[in-house]
Amino acid sequence: MTHAPLLNIPWEERPAGCSDVIWRYNANPIIPRDLIPTSNSIFNSAVVPFEGQFAGVFRCDNKKRELTLHRGMSENGINWNIDHEPILWQINDPEHDPFEHRYDPRLVWLEDRFYITWCNGYHGPTIGVGYTFDFKDFFFIENAFLPFNRNGVLFLRKINGQFMMLNRPSDNGHTPFGDIFLSQSPDLVHRRKHRFVMGVRRGWESTKIGAGPIPIETDEGWLLIYHGVLTSCNGFVYSFGAALLDLESPWKVLARGGPYLLSPQTYYECVGDVPNVAFPCAALYDQPTGRIAIYYGGVDTVTALAFGKIDEIIDFIKTTSES
Ligand code: BMA
Description:
Layout: E1 23-24, E2 39-50, E3 53-62, E4 67-74, E5 81-82, E6 89-90, E7 102-110, E8 113-121, E9 125-132, E10 138-143, E11 149-154, E12 163-169, E13 180-185, E14 192-198, E15 208-211, E16 216-218, E17 221-232, E18 235-245, E19 253-256, H1 267-270, E20 278-286, E21 291-298, E22 302-309, H2 310-320
Parallel strand pairs: 6-10
Antiparallel strand pairs: 1-22, 2-3, 3-4, 4-5, 7-8, 8-9, 9-10, 11-12, 12-13, 13-14, 15-17, 16-17, 17-18, 18-19, 20-21, 21-22
């Protein structure tokens, strides 16, 4: 598949002496917790190219500690103007109004519009699905699943005529388990053919895993960046790694990197509202240069950027792959 070039992708070269597969932006975090007057924290957010610039849906927990989604706009993908008020969803069904909470959005351009998925409170967490054409009006479609579920992530095109959504069945709390599944839908309302994709393993991903950004289509398969959680004596530690999924049957894992790509090690990944969290929700990709910019939340408090090259990430997955 040919991805539209993204010449203005945020970018910084790998620092001299760094041998990591992906590296952090030197001016992280790009979004401080108090960028808008109402916010306690801004993190785990989604970003897409939009009209030559960038648009995003941001998780803003407010000072009442309510979990809300806000629209953001940016010329360069690094400096953001985020609305002070949450997105007002147009909802046809009064049973869905208002939502209990909204968090961890993902955004994808799919056929004719931007689809948004997020963790939506409906008697517990499930996956809300909505869309916008213009980042002015936002429409709610339906919840994708019964509670409890998190990390609903669409693919950027239908596969075999179906919308495909990665997701992670969970519980109503700080879920101590969790594998990635894939569910197919002809219309984004009805779902069928739920398939297991991959489960927890050892070490950094031994407690639970969940899909991160929208998978990137490559000749070698879908590049999936996902978070993995380890339970230490001090609580959960959220890192992220990568795998390749089959292009036509994306519940089949072709290769899965052994080590993490990034684990919480800097101050803004270790110290904040929830220590030791690096949680990716979006990635930009410029196919001509192979550049990838990953947006991730740090410590459930701020938003940060990391960079990598697609061929190096794929090489990392293949050379370190373990089952
Ligand atoms: C998960 C989600 C994320 C959060 C993470 C760490 O269950 O709620 O939003 O970043 O926990 O607190």
